[in-house]
Amino acid sequence: MEIRNKANRIRLFTLKTPQMRAFHFSWFAFHLCFFGWFGIAPLMAVVRDDLGLTKTQIGNTIIASVAITVIVRLLIGVLCDRIGPRRAYTWLLCLGSLPVMAIGFADSFETFLLARLAIGAIGASFVITQYHTSIMFAPNVVGTANATSAGWGNLGGGTTQILMPLIFSSLLMLGVSEAFGWRLAMVVPGVVLFLTGIAYYRFTQDAPDGNFDELRARGELPAASGESSAGQTFLAAARDIRVWALFVVYAACFGVELTIHNIAAIYFFDNFDLTLATAGMIAGLFGLMNLFARTLGGIFSDLFARQAGLKGRVRWLFIAMLCEGIALMFFSQMHVLAFAIGIMLVFSLFVQMAEGATFGVVPFINKRALGAVAGIVGAGGNAGAVAAGFLFRSESLSYQQGLFYLGVAVIIAALCTLLVRFSPEVEAREASAYREAEASQGGAALSLR
């Protein structure tokens, strides 16, 4: 897919251009999706007591919350290729808001499990976010654009941990019981998600020069020729070993982040004898690092590309993954609260920079199957979260042990970056495109104007 008139600068404080509207709406929508997706996580101590859940059952709900996202992410990328990111995001937000509000009707482990399973579909919003920014920004800033939009979206994981307990506490102050309070609190993100879906359709467009149906009518974009075309696009991506290498890599960074979002509050609550609100605040710090950490991952990816091309992007990805694994192993051994918080922040920095570095590489794997590549790699994050979830559902394995084993797995997964290589022709073409975009940039890549 060749999209013209991509932006070669990120002008943060403007909504005048379609590129920047897509940038801001995509990260904001993904940010809100975290409220629906993980809004119940900081309230799990209350839900556990209300529904009488065991540790194994809680582990199963954690797995359910990310399991269905694997499938939806695989499909949503191909859907973006066909109908465009604007309509895909609108449908996902509006339909995804329904189970978020409906989880309040859960009255047993089984109904709660089904609700978390259904809610997990909105996690596919990440793929649309990355797809939309990938086709809006030029090679010299696409790593930064992808990382920043995804990072500010992931920031929702932190603000959710902080705000949902406050919403819950506010309801208790109004006289609502705990059993009804956590149910009522989930209505808030559900309503906001639905309204955001309508706004996304109204204020964004698929590409710099218009929506996909308009581009196809003008002959500027190949026609979407049905299921066979979608299948061929997906198979083209699925046959590329580099895609699956990045699948594993993303499983070991974003998959780990999702796991921490699910267990952090209850981990600090149980292990350091904290209140629910305090545990949520500390857990929220992990997600709040997304304010800048994932952006740094993308910025370094673009900087490494300036010096060493696509090889530089892959090299930086390996470094970030290796540091993430080491930091996670250290975090698992912390028994003093202050040290645990400090090492958690270091770990958070590298896990999110690794995510940004991953999607600094994705746009260059197969441009004709960008949606399929983004979908498969994005699904890797949730596949990793599902796999990690089994470490935290066993009654015989402590959270500390699970985190240590997870750190070892991350270091092993970092070796998959060795499989991500590009032909000399692709290296030369992308180096030329980078220099051309940089030459016409006329200023800093990330601008406040």
TrEMBL record:
Start and end residues of each Major facilitator superfamily (MFS) profile domain: 22-425
Main location: membrane
Residue ranges crossing the lipid bilayer per the database entry: 21-46, 58-76, 88-106, 112-131, 152-174, 180-201, 243-268, 274-293, 314-331, 337-362, 369-391, 403-422
Keyword annotations: Cell membrane, Membrane, Nitrate assimilation, Transmembrane, Transmembrane helix, Transport
Family membership noted in the UniProt record: Belongs to the major facilitator superfamily. Nitrate/nitrite porter (TC 2.A.1.8) family.
Lineage: Bacteria, Pseudomonadati, Pseudomonadota, Gammaproteobacteria, Oceanospirillales
Alphabetical list of Pfam families matching this protein: MFS_1 (PF07690)
Cellular compartment(s): Cell membrane; Membrane
Gene Ontology molecular function terms on file: nitrate transmembrane transporter activity; nitrite transmembrane transporter activity
NCBIfam families hit by this protein: 2A0108 (TIGR00886)
Species for this entry: Halomonas ventosae
GO BP annotation list: nitrate assimilation
Any one of the GO CC terms: plasma membrane
Protein name per Swiss-Prot or TrEMBL: Nitrate/nitrite transporter
